Amino acid sequence: MAPLTSFASFDALFADTPAEYRQVFEGRLEHFRSQLEAPMRRLYGEREDFDHWLQRVVDVAASAAAERHHDLRVLDRQRLEEADWFQRSDMIGYTCYVDRFAGDLGKVVEKIPYLKELGVTYLHLLPVLAPREGENDGGYAIADYRRINPQFGAMEDLRWLAGELRRNGISLCLDLVCNHTADTHDWAIKAKAGESRYQDYYHLFPDRSLPDRFEATVAELFPQSAPGNFTYSSEMEAWVWTTFYGYQWDLNYSNPAVLVEMLSIMLDLANLGVEVFRLDAVIYMWKRLGTDCTNQPEVHSLLQVFRAILKIAAPAVLLKAEAMVTPQHLAKYLGLGESADLECHLGYHNVLMVALWASLAKGDVTLMGEILRTIPPIPAGTAWISYIRCHDDIGWSALEGTEPTEKAGGHDLLKELSDFYAGKLDSSFAAGRSFQVAPEHDVHGTNGTLAALTGFSEAVRLGDKAEIDFATRRILLLYAMIFGFGGIPLIYMGDEIGAPNDETYRGRSAEAGDGRWLHRPFMDWDAAEARHGPTTAQGRLFAGVQRLVKARKSAFALHAQASTRVVETGNDHVFGYLRRGARGAVLVLANFSAQPQTVARACLDQLGVSRQVYDWISGTTSCPDDSLCLEPYDSLWLEAANGDETGT
Ligand code: OTU
Question: Looking at residues 338-345, what average pLDDT do you find?
Fold first, then answer.
């Protein structure tokens, strides 16, 4: 193992902290040092100055640990004692834009009662750090990681908000936009001015020869609005790697200085009280010629370094991977096999998300069942983020190229789904819009709010009671699926009150070119008032969501540690999965069709559901004879016998 500076070098850092705490830190450093060093060595072991960089990372950990506030050290200890806190069934996530939800950071505090009314325990605020001026991809082009977007407040406001949330049982999650900076970040400005130290922070090419070779195998993220993956900088007379918009410059992690910078930024934010980091666009963090430059083994090594440094300096903090990938790559971000417990604690289940929409459009669950069966069980100590939609589009490519998708129609199927949600098919109930469809890419993503995509908005507009009922059922079906699945369910702001699409983005120059703003409406607090009306459409929807939240919080068996197994229901319209673990078992059944459907008694017997069937959602017991009937778009969480499986 590389020689580390003796612990005596920490004297100055820890001068103001109790001796005990320093001991705890040194203990953690000793214990997890190899988990830090091994991935560092895989990444940079060939370098002569490797020891220097390892030491730099240790120094970042030590100074962050020394600066960590007393309350957060207490939190570290609590979380270590209750390591499963984020896996429990009482976790409910919510995600929102600061300005669109409340105004600024201080005003988010005023909305805590609303969040509590919904049962929220985890709040993901979309980017809050200072973005570039003008277009900034909704804050995902950061100009300064050590300053808050001045519209939202200052760092002290963030600290205060994090503390208020914590005191109310809500964990704060923030984005760590680690793949790229804005072209106006200080590093980029210095690079443009010719400082080679900062030019080495990015991927620069003097001419098109390498970019052209990369382009031969790398996909385009925004084929319509930002074609290609390289942008020419006239200041440097060079091509810069820009996976997303031209103003988002990909960082070069083959330079260990970049990693050190990002670790230091992360720990400083953790010390303000951030409890979860959403690691944005992680799959692109390493490039390799001849590949599609995603999901490279080095990306996993980088994440392992992020994880190890947290274990040492801020063990309460969780990592969440934003990896929108195909089933084959997804679970690896939570660690598999040898790397179990070494990568992210949480990961978005984008495959489930996309498969849910496919099932809803088709009224058939065969494809979803086959696809989900290909995803390996996730390691102990991890959980999915299960969600119906987020601030991004529904990216159909998650299903692309998989065997089950090919069987179900392949590209034609994806095109059909995209058209369905754009409201182009007669059978469609949806009012969304296709995203980034250039002629040669006729399927990419779909935009639209939950209410728009399920027909809720349109039914409300027409005042069509029967359709409102159907659409509400669709929404609650999707929520029942993600609330039961095994992880933290994440509600996107406004979906709980049926927020409609927002066409006004077309009039704002920084947004007009990006159709995702269609489904990022401002929270309509007047409309939210209607949630209290038992007969309003919003009121019934909100009450339905609250009922699911309550049911989930009381059904301890839905703990993320319990296994999730897709089961045969004998009916192509009814999806079934069995959750089994130390706290009991639940069979989730969900009817994705607009007609009533049945599941045979024999099937229930086989899955351990007793004669007296208890449903956690309705809180009622029934005794179906030959078969169990599910109403259109209905879902049930049935108590089941645990068998001898213990969820491992
Ligand atoms: C993320 O998403 C963010 O969620 C987006 O809002 C940003 O625009 C983007 O990164 C750049 O910061 O392309 O359509 O996993 O699918 O990272 C969404 C790969 C995106 C990408 C994902 C990205």
Answer: 76
138 C-beta closer than 6 A to ligand 1: yes
Rounded to whole angstroms, the Cα distance separating 629 from 616 reads 16
- What does the pLDDT look like over 534-562, one tens digit per residue? 889 999 999 999 999 999 999 999 999 99
Q: Tell whether ligand 1 has an atom less than 6 A from the beta carbon of residue 97.
A: no
CB atoms under 10 Å from CB of 83, counted, come to 13
Rounded to the nearest angstrom, the distance between the alpha carbon of 130 and the centre of ligand 1 is: 18
The question of whether 467 is a catalytic residue gets the answer: no
Residue 338's pLDDT band, with cuts at 50, 70 and 90, is low
CB-based contacts of 161: which residues, under 8 Å, 6+ apart? 105, 106, 108, 109, 172
Higher pLDDT residue, 8 or 156?
Answer: 156
CATH of residue 593's domain is: 2.60.40.1180
**H-run or E-run covering 22:** helix 19-44
Q: Per the structure, how many domains does the chain have?
A: 3
The string of pLDDT tens digits covering residues 104-156 is: 999 999 999 999 999 999 999 999 999 999 999 999 999 999 999 999 999 99
For ligand 1, whether the C-beta of 354 sits within 6 Å is no
> What pTM did the predictor assign?
0.96
Residue 242: enclosing H or E segment and its boundaries? none
- 285 close to ligand 1 (CB < 6 Angstrom): no
646 — pLDDT class (breaks 50, 70, 90): very low
Determine, yes or no, domain membership for 322: yes
Contact 560, 87 (CB under 8 A): yes
Q: For residue 475, how many C-alpha atoms fall within 13 Å in the half-sphere facing its CB? A: 33
Beta strands at 204-205 and 238-241: parallel, antiparallel or unpaired: antiparallel
Q: Do 565 and 601 share a domain, yes or no?
A: yes
Label residue 399 by pLDDT band (50, 70, 90): very high
Asked if 429 and 471 count as a contact pair (C-beta separation under 8 A), the reply is yes
If you write DSSP's letter for every residue of 413-461 in order, what string do you get?
HHHHHHHHHTT-STT-----EEES--TT----EEE--HHHHTTHHHHHH
Closest C-alpha to 424, from 448, 390, 397: 448
Domain final position from 509, 540, 556 = 556
Ligand 1 mutation target, pool 124, 344, 392, most atoms within 8 A of CB: 392
Give yes or no for a contact between 379 and 340, defined as CB atoms under 8 angstroms apart. Answer: yes
pLDDT of 585 higher than 90? yes
Tell which of 556, 591, 609 closes a domain: 556
Match 């007047």 to its residue by tokens: 526
Residue 403's CATH number: 3.20.20.80
Q: Quick check: is 280 catalytic?
A: yes
